[in-house]
Amino acid sequence: MKPSAPKSKELNVCGWQAVSALFARHPDEVQRLFFDAATGRRAGEFCSLLAVRKKVYRQVEPAELDKIAGSKLHGGIVAVITERPLKKVTREVMAEWARSKAPLLLLDRVSNANNVGAIVRTAAFFGVQAIIVPDHPGQALPGEAAWRVAEGGMEFVDFFRVPALAPFCAELKRSHCLIGTSLRGNQLSPSAARERGLPRPPAIILGNEERGMAPEVMTQCDRLVKIPGADTVESLNVSAAAAVLCWEFFGRR
After folding, report:
1. Domain span at 23
2. N or C: where does the chain have the smaller number of CB atoms within 10 Å of the terminal CB?
3. Helix then strand then coil, % of the chain, to nearest 5
4. Residue 165 half-sphere exposure, CB side, CA atoms within 13 Å?
C-alpha cells in the first residue's frame, strides 16, 4: 500500500487588515473563513468570493472564534490558508536581484515572531520584496503571530531560506553592498554611510535580538553602522532598527 502524502500544514491569518490584504492579493489561498457578528457586517464580499469557490465561511460566537484562532488576538476574523513554503535562492533569483538592484533584508537568527512580523510590515512599506533567513533553529519563521503583526505585509514580501547565512553573504556581496549594525567601535551612522556612497545596491542584515550578528556574518559586511541615540539605553528593538535602516537606505532612493 502506497503511504499517504503528509498533510499540508494550515495557518490562521487573523485581523481585518491581514485578511483584507489576503483576499485582495491571493483570494484562492483561503480555505475557510470565520468571523464574529460585528465583523461579519463588512465581510460580505469575502463571503461571496468563497461561495463561488464552494469554500466554508461562517459567523461564530466569540468563544468559538477564540478557539479557532488559538488566541483572543484575532480582531474578529480568521482566514485559514495552507502554510506558504519558504522559497529557495537559485542562481536565477540572484541574477534577477542583481539586475533589478533589489532592496533586500537578511535576518540573522531574529528569534521573536512579533519582531519578524513588524519587520515584514516595514519591508512592505518601503517596497522590500524579499527577506532572506537562515535554516537555523534560532530563526523565527513567518507563522501566525508574524502574520498578525505584519498587518497585511505578508502579501507583498517573499521569504527565502538559505542553508547558512555567511556563505550566502559571500555570494550576495558580488551584487549588493552588505550593511550590518554593530554596537562596538566607532561605526558610521547610517546617514553618513549613505552619504559617502555605496559601491553596490544595499542589502541590510539584522542580527539576533540579544547577540546581534554572528561573527562569521559580520565579517562579510561591507559597512557596519550604528544608529545614534541618547545613550540612555543600549540599542533599539530590532524591528525599530529595521525601520530606521530601511528609511535611510531604501526610503531615500
Report:
1. 10-82
2. N
3. 40, 20, 40
4. 32
User: What residues form DSSP beta bridges with 59?
Assistant: 35
Dist CA 238 CA 240 (whole Å) = 5
Final residue of a structural domain among 67, 82, 97: 82
What DSSP string runs through 195-211? HT--SS-EEEEEEBTTT
In the block, which residue shows the cell 533589478? 100
Q: Give yes or no: residues 96 and 163 share one domain.
A: yes
Sheet (strand 30-35) strand order: 10-14, 77-82, 30-35, 56-59
Q: 126-180 pLDDT, tens per residue?
A: 999 999 999 999 999 999 999 999 999 999 999 999 999 999 999 999 999 999 9
- Residue count of the chain: 253
Contact between 239 and 115 (Cβ < 8 Å): yes
Q: Which of 82, 109, 135 is the last residue of a domain?
A: 82
pLDDT digits (tens, 9 = 90+) for 197-240: 899 999 999 999 999 999 999 999 999 999 988 888 778 999 99
Backbone phi, then psi, for 243, in 5-degree steps? -65, -45
Instruction: Quote the crossing angle between the two packed helices 16-25 and 44-52, to the nearest 10°.
Output: 40
Number of domains in the chain: 2
